[in-house]
Every structure is written in C-alpha cells, then in structure tokens.
Design a protein that fits this description.
Blueprint: H1 3-14, E1 41-47, E2 51-57, H2 68-77, H3 103-118, E3 128-134, E4 139-145, H4 149-167
Antiparallel strand pairs: 1-2, 2-4, 3-4
Helix pairs in contact: 1-4, 3-4
The protein binds zinc ion.
The site of zinc ion (ZN) has 4 residues, from helix 3.
C-alpha cells in the first residue's frame, strides 16, 4: 500500500457515520517513507476527531536527538520553525530547544509548519505534543491537530521524508 492509498482509505472512512475515522497501520515498510532502513519511521497514523496520532520509531540512538547542524538544515528550508510557540523547559518558542531536542519533537513542528503552509485559513492554529512512549526503544508518540485530516497525513509523510532525506543524515 502506498501513501496515496493510505489517504484514499482515510477519505473512504470519512463517509462512515461515526464521529472519528481511524486509520492505523502497524509496521509499514512500503515505499521510501516507510522503508525499513529509514532512520525515522512512521509506524502508524491514527486520525481522531481533533488530531492525528503518530507512532514514530527511531531505531538508531544517533538519530533520536537534534544537533545545531540538524536544526540549521531544518531552518534553512523552514525559517519560521524557531518562532513556533512551544511549551518547553527553556523558553516559549521552539527555537529555545530546537538545537537539542528529540527528533520526534522536530517532526511535530515540521508537521505543524507544513499544515500552516498548506492551509487556506490564515488564522488557523495548530497544536501538537510529543512524548517518548519508550525512549530506550526509540518509540515516540506525536499528536498534531488539523484543519484537514488529509493535509495532516500528507504533512506527516512529507515531514518524515524531509527529515530522512535532507536533515538528519
Ligand atoms: Zn514544541
């Protein structure tokens, strides 16, 4: 199943009468984004009524945290990342921690940034959270709100691809 097929499935499920559509894929290895060897892998994406929940797997410990060089490469492409509001131990913006935070947290802010860019409503506000489920195993949970669930799913895939292809390696 490709990423495109995933999005199609979600759309089909939206027509169901229940208030939330759920798409969950475990251990997906299809295509480049979910290739078994990719440093940051999206193991599953679950669409809830108000947010998308992603289970992220980062096997190699060297890819689990950002560095100043990683932050610089991400900012080169998305200069407004550092100004994102972010509740963290060092300040009120993502810029306060982006040199030394979890790669999953960077993924969260990339997903938010990509949704901001693709959203027609300039007043739209996106919020997210990132937490380790099992830091020893490199498993994190990233949750991000959305205006359009299909845009959010695309943003997760695009952000993971960007991280793997241009930022962390
Ligand atoms: Zn944050």
């Amino acid at each position: 199943m490709t990423s495109t097929a995933t999005i199609t499935n979600t759309r089909n499920r939206q027509s169901r009468p229940c208030s939330e559509s759920i798409l969950e894929r475990k251990n997906a290895h299809e295509g480049n984004l979910h290739a078994q060897g990719a440093p940051v892998r999206i193991e599953s994406l679950t669409v809830k009524a108000d947010r998308v929940i992603a289970r992220i797997s980062i096997d190699d410990v060297h890819f689990r945290y950002t560095t100043p060089a990683i932050a610089e490469r991400a900012q080169a492409e998305y200069p407004t990342l550092a100004r994102h509001a972010c509740v963290n131990a060092r300040g009120k913006t993502f810029g306060a921690v982006m040199n030394e935070t979890s790669t999953a947290h960077l993924l969260e802010h990339l997903v938010i940034e990509m949704q901001i860019r693709s959203c027609a409503d300039e007043a739209a506000v996106f919020v997210g959270t990132t937490e380790w489920i099992d830091e020893q195993a490199g498993i994190a949970c990233v949750q991000v709100s959305f205006e359009d669930d299909l845009n959010a799913l695309r943003a997760f895939n695009k952000a993971a691809h960007f991280l793997n292809s241009a930022v962390i390696v």
